[in-house]
UniProtKB/TrEMBL annotation:
One of its GO terms (biological process) is regulation of translational fidelity. Pfam families: Sua5_yciO_yrdC (PF01300). This is L-threonylcarbamoyladenylate synthase. It comes from Zarconia navalis LEGE 11467. Keywords: ATP-binding, Cytoplasm, Nucleotide-binding, Nucleotidyltransferase, Transferase, tRNA processing. InterPro entries: DHBP_synth_RibB-like_a/b_dom, Sua5-like_dom, TC-AMP_synthase_SUA5.
C-alpha cells in the first residue's frame, strides 16, 4: 500500500523515496535532488529531458543559480510577478546542483514555485525537490491519485486528497539566454510572458 498521510509522505520524501502530490498544474513525481536518477528510471525517461527543481520559496532556489547581479535582478523581477505559479525558469546552474537532475547538461536547471498550498507545505518541510509530471515518458500526465498509484506502485501518494481529476495545464518553460540576455520560450503553458519581460 503506497497511499499515506501527509506527515508520512514528508518523512518518506526526506528519506529519499519518490513521492507524488498535487500541484497547480499537474500532479508531480518528486524526490530529493541527489536521488533524481530514480525518477528517470521509473518514468523510463530520456536523460536529455531534465527534471525541474521545485521549491516552496524563491529564496530556496536562487542558491542553485549562477548569474551576474544584473541577470539576477531580471530573473527575480519575473519571479516576483509569476511565482508562485505555472512558470518554469531555466537558468544557469551552480555546481550545487546534483548532476543527476540534468545528466546531459548539468550547467542549467529549470525551477519553479508552485501555486499550491499542499505542494508548498510539503516543500517547506523537505526543501527543494526534483520533480516531473506523473506519467510514463511519452504518455499523457496522470491526474488522479488512484491512477498514479496503479502506474507507480512503489511511489508514495497522498491518501487524504481529492481523487477527482486535477484541472491544469503544464507550466510555461522560459530559458534565459545569456548571449542575448532574453528569454526563449521552450514550452508555452499557463503563463504568458509579455514582450517587455522577454528582453
Amino acid at each position: 500500500m503506497t497511499s499515506v498521510s501527509l506527515p508520512q509522505l514528508i518523512v518518506g520524501a526526506c528519506q529519499g523515496n519518490v513521492v507524488s502530490f498535487p500541484t497547480d498544474t499537474v500532479p508531480a513525481l518528486a524526490v530529493l535532488p541527489d536521488r533524481a536518477a530514480s525518477i528517470f528510471n521509473l518514468k523510463q525517461r530520456s536523460q536529455s529531458k531534465p527534471l525541474i527543481l521545485m521549491g516552496a520559496d524563491p529564496e530556496d532556489l536562487w542558491p542553485y543559480t549562477l548569474g551576474s547581479d544584473g541577470e539576477r535582478e531580471i530573473w527575480q523581477q519575473v519571479a516576483r510577478k509569476h511565482w508562485p505559479g505555472a512558470l518554469t525558469l531555466v537558468l544557469p546552474a551552480t555546481d550545487r546542483l546534483p548532476p543527476q537532475m540534468n545528466p546531459i547538461d548539468p550547467t542549467t536547471i529549470g525551477m519553479r514555485v508552485p501555486n499550491s498550498a499542499i505542494a508548498i507545505e510539503i516543500l517547506r518541510k523537505t526543501g527543494p525537490l526534483a520533480t516531473t509530471s506523473a506519467n510514463r515518458s511519452g504518455e499523457p500526465p496522470l491526474h488522479q491519485m488512484d491512477r498514479i498509484e496503479a502506474a507507480f506502485p512503489q511511489v508514495l501518494t497522498l491518501s487524504d486528497v481529492a481523487r477527482s481529476p486535477a484541472l491544469g495545464v503544464p507550466s510555461t518553460v522560459a530559458k534565459w539566454t545569456q548571449t542575448s540576455r532574453s528569454w526563449e520560450i521552450l514550452r508555452q503553458g499557463a503563463v504568458e510572458l509579455r514582450e517587455e519581460e522577454r528582453a
